[in-house]
């Protein structure tokens, strides 16, 4: 059973809704097996009075069916005796996030609006390319951090996604791409970026547990080298992320002076640039073959001067960081206080960084027409509720 001690608070500016971490029965009394590790699965079976040896064997079979075969029905599990299917069905489910809406952009990018059982909405985005397919996964409903250029940061409601809801996004993408059973070759879904809604390092345990499932070679089997976790700079959690998850790191730097970063990434007032870069230098496993990505959103007359570019190079050199810089043209959203830098400015910035021997590609915005591009994620339900509020205000 869940106790208050299991509820994990989320730090930030708004009071988020804490949610239980491990398995709790759903409203129909059944336990969702999705998101459970092998050990937790076994425990769930033992809690349901399955004898220890049986539980061990069945847990292994169930785990394989769930994460390797993508099964959602116990009746499909041919190596589990038919007589046991009703027993399992009465007690357990294997869920998927509920899909509220699925959209396809003119450039092939797909966005799904998902809804949890407690009616919280979050989004995931699939970006197909010639040689890869990247799933952009959310870690929270909304985000507590309020970066001034990011639409997600303006959502009022925030809660951590559970491991089931995080790994569920990957499962759902595999369902819709028809990529079961899990195969090492010829997949469309090849990469995962934790760059959807939310700050993954403010939901550390759930993100870690979900990614462990994603990386398990016997299940979804995505290599940690094909997974990237993006953080706005939660310095105290970065060492743990390196040690306990070990995926590629991306850091949302976005500015090189305290004044500007304090404004656009308010978390900078807590953990400054130098502290952040030191944590990057300490991040395990980085070398020239495995660099840290620094994301830099291009905001007109804010952070995009030649001097900024030179300062960026100086900082990356000072900390001897094996780095690549990802220049992201600002994606506008209604009411945003910024404009995107001009293409000439972006070019000039990029060539200064590139001239210093650091790769600095400009990221092509994808899925802008369906609000699927970086920083545009804000759920339709919240947009609707705002419209609803406006209507109510007009009637009053
Ligand atoms: N919270 C994490 C991960 C999600 S955001 C983080 O901030 O790193 C993924 C990336 O999109 C981040 O680099 C974020 O700063 C960037 N981003 C946010 N809003 C944007 C916008 N309107 N235009 C372009 N990039 C944006
Ligand atoms: Fe949160 Fe990242 Fe958006 Fe900042 S940029 S508000 S940390 S999702």
From TrEMBL:
Q: Which InterPro entries match?
A: Aldolase_TIM, Methyltransferase_A, RlmN_N, RNA_MTrfase_RlmN, rRNA_lsu_MTrfase_RlmN/Cfr, rSAM, rSAM_sf
Q: What else is known?
A: Reaction proceeds by a ping-pong mechanism involving intermediate methylation of a conserved cysteine residue.
Keyword annotations: 4Fe-4S, Cytoplasm, Disulfide bond, Iron, Iron-sulfur, Metal-binding, Methyltransferase, rRNA processing, S-adenosyl-L-methionine, Transferase, tRNA processing
> Which residues take part in binding [4Fe-4S] cluster?
143, 147, 150
- Taxon lineage: Bacteria, Pseudomonadati, Pseudomonadota, Alphaproteobacteria, Sphingomonadales
Q: How is the cofactor bound?
A: Binds 1 [4Fe-4S] cluster. The cluster is coordinated with 3 cysteines and an exchangeable S-adenosyl-L-methionine.
The cofactors required by this protein are: [4Fe-4S] cluster
The keyword Lipoprotein is assigned to this record: no
In its UniProt record, which GO terms are filed under biological process? rRNA base methylation; tRNA methylation
Q: What is this protein called?
A: Dual-specificity RNA methyltransferase RlmN
Q: What is its main location?
A: cytoplasm
Q: What gene is this protein a product of?
A: rlmN
**A single Gene Ontology CC term:** cytoplasm
